[in-house]
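Memo to structure team: turn this sequence into structure tokens by end of day. - J.P.
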Amino acid sequence: MTENAGSVVDEETFSVRRTIRIAASIDKVWRAVAEPEHISRWFGRTQLDGAGVGATGTMSFPEDDVIPLRVEAYDEPHVISYRWNNDDAADGLPDAIDESTSTVFTFTLDEIDGGTQLTVVESGFERTSAPRENLESHRTGWDAELDKMVALVEGEA
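Reply from structure team:
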């Protein structure tokens, strides 16, 4: 599996960023980050009604509640953004997207020699119940989840 640096927290912009290299085609990586059946294999169980901007649904993890999810941007195979209410420090999660407390994570894909470069940026933590706690939680989360995705996609390459 390709070794990649970990996620970085930017406390000034309340964001988490991670850029990784994947020894797989951009099309395979796109499917891994844009198609619910593929996302569910490495991240949380994902369901979306529809495709493209405005598609809504949920993401769930075995230890967590169901998290509302909405596609915010979609430019196949280069950019996809999701808005979600995954506030690890909150007492509970809303049943639908709450714009006032949600964060947005964006996957940007670029073709490079030998595969794909993927950058994820999650922003909006200043709107969460405990910004610094959530920044750290999501930093470690992106490290673990993207490492699983790299192993999965490279194993199928």
